[in-house]
Amino acid sequence: MAKLLEVASEMEKKNSPKRVDGLSKIYGKALYVDDIPLNGVLHASTIRSSCAGGVVEELTFDPTFDWTPFVVVTAQDIPGLNAIKMLENDQPVLVDRVFRHAGEPLALLAHSDRGMLETALCHVHVRETPLAHPVFEIDEALHAEGTIIPDNVYTDYLLNKGDVEQAQKNAECFIEERLMTSSQEQLYIEPQGMIAVFQEDGVLRIEGSMQCPYYVLDALEQCTGLDKDKLRVVQSTTGGAFGGKEDYPSMIACHAALLALKAGGLPVKLIYERGEDLRVTPKRHPSRSLVRLGANREGELQFIDMDFAIDGGAYRTLSPVVLSRGVIHAPGPYRCANIRVRGRAVATNHPPFGAFRGFGAPQSIFALEVAMDRLAAKLNMDPAELRRKNLLHRGDVSPTGDLVGEDCFAQEILEAALIASHYEERRDAFRHWNAAQHNTLRGIGLATFAHGAGFTGNGELYLASRVFLQAHADGQVEILCSNTEMGQGAATTLVQIAADALQLPMEQVHLAQTDTARVPNSGPTVASRTCMVVGDLIEKAAQCLLQKLRAEGGLSQTFTSAEFSAVCFRMQESGKDLLVTASYQPPVDMLWDEKSFTGRAYSSYAWAAYIAEVEVDKLTLETRVLNFTAAQEIGHAVHPQIVQGQIEGGVVQGIGYALYENVLWNQFGVMANDRLTNYIIPTTADIGPLQVVLMEKGLGAGPKGAKGVGELPMDGPAPAIVNAIQQALKIDVAQIPAMPELLLDLSRAQRGSQCQ
Amino acid sequence: MSVKMQINGQEVQVQAPPASRLLDVLRGELGLKGAKEGCGEGECGACAVLVNGQVVNSCLIPLGQMDGAKIVTIEGVPGDSPLLQSFHDCAAAQCGICTPGMILAATALLAEHPQPTMDEIRWGLSGNLCRCTGYGRIYEAVTQASTGDAHG
Ligand code: FES
Ligand code: FES
Prior knowledge:
The structure holds two protein chains of two kinds.
Chain A: E1 6-7, H1 8-13, H2 22-26, E2 42-48, E3 54-61, E4 71-74, E5 98-99, E6 105-111, H3 114-121, E7 124-130, H4 138-143, E8 153-161, H5 164-170, E9 173-181, E10 193-198, E11 204-208, H6 213-224, E12 231-235, H7 248-262, E13 268-271, H8 274-280, E14 287-295, E15 301-313, H9 319-329, E16 339-347, H10 361-379, H11 383-390, H12 410-421, H13 423-435, E17 440-453, H14 459-463, E18 466-471, E19 477-480, H15 490-502, E20 509-511, H16 530-553, H17 561-573, E21 579-583, E22 592-593, E23 598-599, E24 604-617, E25 623-633, H18 640-659, E26 691-695, H19 717-729, E27 735-736, H20 740-755
Parallel strand pairs in A: 2-13, 9-27, 11-12, 15-16, 19-20, 25-26
Antiparallel strand pairs in A: 1-26, 2-6, 3-5, 3-7, 4-6, 8-16, 9-14, 10-11, 10-13, 14-15, 17-24, 18-19, 18-21, 22-23, 24-25
Helix pairs in contact in A: 6-7, 9-10, 10-11, 10-19, 15-16, 18-19
Chain B: E1 2-7, E2 10-15, H1 22-29, E3 48-51, E4 54-57, E5 70-72, H2 82-89, H3 99-112, H4 118-124, H5 136-147
Parallel strand pairs in B: 1-5
Antiparallel strand pairs in B: 1-2, 3-4, 3-5
Protein name (chain A): Xanthine dehydrogenase family protein
Pfam family, one (chain A): MoCoBD_2
InterPro entries (chain B): 2Fe-2S-bd, 2Fe-2S-bd_dom_sf, 2Fe-2S_ferredoxin-like_sf, 2Fe-2S_ferredoxin-type, 2Fe2S_fd_BS, Beta-grasp_dom_sf, Diverse_Oxidoreductases
């Protein structure tokens, strides 16, 4: 292989500066929303619907109870539009009469004493007429008579290339599978929350845990009717998000703001306790995929046909964008002339589903990669061999019809993963292990995939992101952008990129607090775009700043940090401004047609091959991950240690998705296991050290060829693990999580069919 | 009721109902906000503190049981603790919300097993959830603190 692999231990020896947010978090000094000191604060609570859709007939505040010390807000108190600003204005801020799911906000209460608030909640009575036939399943919703929206379909996409019908006639080997993924909770350890307070100058300041301050600002403007210059959104230290704090913070912010508007100047704090957060905030879309694959005898794919449907829940929110990413990633990183992917986001009476790391791709990649193993079995071919035959090469045509250029390392990364994991050796050893009479069965499984970074298609163009760099008279430089640090390391990475480009020590560069009163809109912190897209803008801004200092302040070609500072000082003294702006320009070859799903969907793909080794207890059918190898080509690792942490964190969320994390629903379509005692995420007892392999070819769209890595590690673990379980138990597993109960049913069914 | 405790080496007297959660007393009356509330039911470890050297979830502890107890919160971990340095060196704090509890659990672990094996580390930290790191950087940080091997 061209470039030597860098495994974890070697990689860390490379230069990874300390995280800029490290010490304050380690000493426990960072202020999360619940830690911010406030005087005379009112605590708030939300009154919610209990049925799975219906009509609120009556909302009564017990007349015998003294409501004077309380702030009460209902839909009638909304000065602006009663809708959360998102892709469509369909979701109310507070239900007026008609509602679509259980747990919808109806009214808000605030009081300085939490105990009093609890008491008051017992004096609010809601009379609802429930919807006669709520729907909770994708196929049920597609065939339902009474519908939530027309046909119960929010969005219907078609990716169509070649001629699947014709190819089907010629295929020599053919499989058809139905695969399901369940919902998944982001489970950031810090629950969601917001504080609203009027500043002395009359500006309404909202501070809290969030990913996208400008989404919140837009939502506040629409709901309060206040002008943007009377609103200010500030991000507090955010204790994890993973997509879960993309859209819902707008809801909580509007609620806190509405209470503050009535609270006569007192600050209002609305923090969810864990159970409420689990029940009402958006989670990963459940999915159902019907996959058909055809190949010739040699194993070359002849067609890929997928009917991919996701449960969007009761409002549209982000479902169209989740769906489009799912559809584009569905055909995987494979060469295939005939592809048809139909994608639908379906309306049900669950609370709306939303963004979670991977954003549609983990669902469709799971379906395809498990189906690929079934095809391999039918062809009597090793799964790695089947992939080798079909992975994209430079010069191929991609599933969306554009030419695959130099930046394609699908084959290379597969070989790297196979070597690092000792794939063949392990596979043979497991065969022997399984033949001997042990209490466990072992299997090794893989998944190959690519993940596109940044907004899909023309999304980045529409965003038109901007960043500022502000130099100060003392030579310190501030980065002003709206992208948030939520644990992923953006603060460090962006400072590092700017410092590198400015040839200054990192200590001289700072990331300004994400505060809409100061920072421009550089787009939301989602879709693995921050380091790649915003990092690139910051690099460009740094070059502009140097140019400016050279042209207007006489900064020499090479300079010391002190010389840089001196020039800044002189320029400031002579009244010159030290601010530069950089705005997004799309790459010239970025052509995307969103109607036909053809063209170049992402400026860069990262390439990956993940390999899981599992052991299943014959008696309990519990699955343990013995080893996990995550190999990826990511262009360039700006901060290798942070990259490694991102990949490890994503893989472990993927392991949870595959094995443990089972969202259960009550009869009203709300999460039933709404506690950490019964919604199980991986702990240290479940997770050993993982093997992370990075390949850096330097061809991505970001600084020094970097590509986005945040979401990528979520895509591979579930299919790799399920493929390994299938190999160990010799059964077909068609859904995740692969809990012992499910494996037991499948094993029984299989034994039954063998007896017949 | 009035409860006397030693918190981070200082004698403290608190007036509060005996059923008050230790977590609320620490965060509220005493302003020690390093202990976080992640679940409020003893499952996540974000609120972990040391009580008489043992790691406990302060969201489950009623103040009434704390009379005479010696409590250490993240604010009281000595500045020269190798864990503080190693968590920083290894980038073991991502969003950081689990970090104070994790460091206290690791402090208790290292007090019992100064040179822990990987299994002992995994067992010792299994009461503390981290959703960000996948635990890899945390394992490395605890190992570094125990062996004194400087990072990189
Ligand atoms: S808050 Fe105490 S264990 Fe989660
Ligand atoms: S660092 Fe975020 S939960 Fe551990």
